[in-house]
Amino acid sequence: MATASPQFFSYNKQSATSWRSPTKAQWDQYGVGFSYAKHFAPGESTYYKLNQQNLNQQLVVLPMHFTLADNLHLHVSPYYVHQFGPSLGGENIPASGGYFGTQQYGDLNVGTPVNGSILTSSRDPWNQKTGGVNVSADWRLSKSNTLSFGWWYAYTTHEELSDFRPVYADGSGWSGDVIRVGGKILTGYDLNFMQQVNTLFIADTQKLLNDKLTLSAGFRVAMVSRQGTNLVPGADPYKMQGNYFEPLPQFSASYMITPKDQIYINGTTSFRAPESVEAYSQIFDPNSAHATMQPQSLKPEYSISEEIGYRHQGKFYNFSMSLFNINLTNHQVTSTGYIPNTNMMVASPINIGGQTSRGVQAEFGLARWHHFSPYLSGQFLHSTFDNNFNTGSGYLPTAGKTAVQAPKFTGAIGLSYDDGRFFGNFDLRYVDTQYTTFMNDEKMPAYVTSNLTLGYRMKSFSYLKHPQIQLNLTNIGDNHYRSGSSYTANAHPHVTSTGAIAAGSAPVYYVGGVFAAMVSVSSGF
């Protein structure tokens, strides 16, 4: 017998001018005023219309469930995801004598030269398609034992051919014809990338002691194959590939002390191949005779995690607390920064080596009383690098230093209200100081944000089911803060193990959202 679950189709289109990402010095000088230019001027690459982020996404999921026998159930979920740009960034490139890959070009004879450069709209019309299927089966061998097994397959193609379009003195032309050199599109990267993922898994769950004790053990095998080409003249390597095979065991156990109280332990493993397509390829720019970004380490990240905890789910309150330990090998720190000399940002993984993270987290919430329900949560984290960082010319002494993106304390306080008609929610969040360099010579201050939601549900009428109106107020204190960053080895010069000087490189920061108000109206049908 087959059972069809609700099918899911979606299309999403986003277009926005993002915040500029400042360095610490730029943030200290301008704050949230460090933004793209409001008005066009010849040669002004920071004009906001030249710097746009566009995301188009189509998603189709078709879940199906089959009962093969009373104790055997099959689940099949094919899916398709299509994402594409373009991303836009203003850039001044040489009117003559610039570079197409490693080859120097002559006079471009386009645009309006200003001091030997022409202003262009640098476009990245990336296009990514993924088709896949998740297949799993649950076989109940007895009242207390269930065997699960399955397969996940996904095939992805990714095309990324950047181009440049001239912007003339009056601000026109930037949506026109692309610039060509010798009949070929002038580009900094011409990537064609393919990925296949095969993952097999099996798991067995056994219940004992009148179902108070639950034991579960499983094993996954992940196989990832990647290959791609870069057709820019002089690209070396021209063809890139990476193949990964990782066994991933896992175990969990839980015991119900009472019907409301549970203790548990988990032991899991996971792996992650380098995330970015750019990790496999060089990136070029007309302003440079050499690649401005080089391929990174293609070693996969592997993690081993342990957790022990306690949960209480009762009539009056819920509480949970756990201790955790995570050991990472070849940890991939994903850093999103500007391509040198441009306003275009790309994500690039950096292999920092080993990392150890330990901590405790807890949550507490009261049951609803007179329609109100409060909530508290918090986490303490101690995360350090295990190895010194290889700069290519020597090692920096990063072992034992605090990891980036690892605030020591985080916490949240929330209060919700819901009487069936009127509803609302308030939350206040604290995030502690975070280092943004591996040498811990630059950091991002702690920050606090608060948000408020107010809404009203109306009675159903006609074809509308439970229509509602909702007001969302974000960052109601209008705090100006940095919410994240790119990551570098060191912001200031340091001596490496070989005596060489590692030049400083300033991280760039993401600007946290300022106060905003939004009203939404929704309904079921």
Automatic annotation (TrEMBL):
Pfam families: TonB_dep_Rec_b-barrel. It is a multi-pass membrane protein. InterPro entries: Beta-barrel_TonB, Beta-barrel_TonB_sf, TonB-dep_rcpt-like. Residues 30-476 form the TonB-dependent receptor-like beta-barrel domain. GO terms for cellular component: cell outer membrane. GO terms for molecular function: siderophore uptake transmembrane transporter activity. The keyword Ribosomal protein does not apply. It comes from the Bacteria. It is found in: Cell outer membrane. Keywords: Cell outer membrane, Ion transport, Iron, Iron transport, Membrane, Receptor, Signal, TonB box, Transmembrane, Transmembrane beta strand, Transport. PANTHER family: CATECHOLATE SIDEROPHORE RECEPTOR FIU, FERRICHROME IRON RECEPTOR-RELATED. This is TonB-dependent receptor. It comes from Acetobacter malorum.
